[in-house]
Amino acid sequence: MSELSEAKRRIVERLKRAETATVPTLAEEFGLTTTAVRQHLDALEQLGLVQRLAPENGRPGRPATRWALTAEADHLFPDRHADFAVDMLRAVRDSLGDEALESVLASRTERQAESYRERIGTAVNLRTRVDRLAAQRTREGYLAEVVRSGRDLLLIEHHCPICDAAKECAQLCRYEKELFTSVLGDVHVERTSHLLAGDARCVYRISPNRSSNDGR
């Protein structure tokens, strides 16, 4: 949040606590003019961090516009998901053993596979299926794209949102490779670049099996 001015930061923090607020309320709390508050809110709106809510009906007079944070503002606040995931993986391994950890990861992968199959559907064309897989991975924060390489396709992931957890538990990467193979169908998946091995990104070469004509 350091990129925001002091006044904008205070407004964002106030909206985080109050969920919604009006310009007059914010002006009174911070000792600012309503014009100054509107200018700050307009700037935050342009950044996609706040939004105007529809006025509430049923109240006499002209209802004041209420402001709230958008989901985009979440990145301004500390996120300990990575630490939590690492701690949970360690706790499962230390308390229940490696077999229990493998069981947990396998169950997670199966749930992922079911969700991915719904997203990918049953498209005949392999490129369509891989494009849909990349779109889903991008929604999850992997910044994925698909590039053709001869008869094969390369699924390139430019970011890994679970990198800290994967450093603690290398099995996560193995299960991801198995996940892709499972949801894409009659293909062979090979990881050719690996972030944890020192590469700049993870790259998966997806090849149609020889018995398949689906290479287009």
Main sheet characteristics: 4 strands, antiparallel
Shape: elongated
Please indicate the percent range of residues in DSSP E strands (runs of 2 or more): 15-25%
Question: Count of DSSP helices?
Answer: 8
Radius of gyration: 24 Å
- What string, H for helix and E for strand, traces the elements in order? HEHHEEHHHEEHHEE
Q: Largest beta sheet: what is the strand line-up?
A: 4-5-7-6
Which spans of ≥5 residues are poorly predicted at pLDDT below 50? none
Number of strands: 7
The structural class is alpha+beta
Task: Give the helix proportion (percent range).
Answer: 40-55%
Average predicted confidence as pLDDT: 88
| Cα distance spanning the termini | 46 Å
Question: Topology of this structure?
Answer:
Blueprint lengths: L5 H13 L2 E2 H8 L3 H13 L3 E4 L12 E4 L11 H16 L1 H23 L5 H14 L4 E6 L2 E6 L5 H6 L2 H14 L2 E7 L8 E7 L8
Antiparallel strand pairs: 1-3, 2-3, 4-5, 5-7, 6-7
Helix pairs in contact: 2-3, 4-5, 5-8
Question: Explain this structure to me?
Answer:
The protein has eight helices and seven strands. With 216 residues, it is α+β, with helices and mostly antiparallel strands. The chain is elongated, with a radius of gyration of 24 Å. Helices cover 50% and strands 17% of the residues. It has a four-stranded antiparallel beta sheet, covered by helices on one side. A three-stranded antiparallel beta sheet has the order 1-3-2.
